[in-house]
Amino acid sequence: MRPIVVDANILFAAFLQDGTTRELILDRGLDLRSPPWLWEEVAARYEWLLGKGGLSRPAQDELLRQLRGRIIDIPAAAIVGQKDEALRRVRRSGRKDAPYIAAVLAVEGILWTHDAKLAKLTKVPTVTTAVLLELLQFGD
Q1: Are 70 and 85 in contact (CB under 8 A)?
Q2: Pair 119, 111: CB distance under 8 Å
Q3: Would you list the domain boundaries of the chain?
Q4: What is the pLDDT of residues 61-111, one digit of tens each?
Q5: Does residue 119 carry a pLDDT above 80?
Q6: Which of 17, 27, 70, 116 is most buried when burial is the number of CB atoms within 10 A of its CB?
Q7: What residues contact residue 57 under an 8 Å CB cut-off, 6+ apart?
């Protein structure tokens, strides 16, 4: 399977619920990647995640450590190199998501997202958690 680029809503889902998304990230040996600034988004919302996720601070800190260990940063220079193509693909309506599209293009990967609108307008391969789970079960 190609590298899978994790977007913010997938990572936040892993913090908020001990479910399929967290299991897929931590236990499946997938080739997971992210833009390096994804971790800044997590840091900016860390207290909110702590309040909503129901974990103690030590447990959430440990979960962050484990997630960081499973998701590889895509070099920013590689993402920047795909910026123009990403902007062309998403046009005006998806400009805020262009960096994720550039990340997918940089690694020739698949975008893992729960954002249906983003999945429709990106013109790059995308999967939801449900689709990824089906692909993995079919592949076993």
Answers
A1: no
A2: yes
A3: 4-139
A4: 999 999 999 999 999 999 999 999 998 888 776 678 889 999 999 999 999
A5: no
A6: 70
A7: 50
pTM: 0.91
pLDDT digits (tens, 9 = 90+) for 7-66: 999 999 999 999 999 999 998 789 999 999 999 999 999 999 999 999 999 999 999 999
**Distance of alpha carbon 107 from alpha carbon 82, whole angstroms:** 10
Which residues in 1-24 are b (16+ Cβ under 10 Å) and which e?
eebbbbbbebbbbbbbeeeebbeb
Residue the block writes with tokens 């790059």? 124
4 forms beta bridges with 32, 110
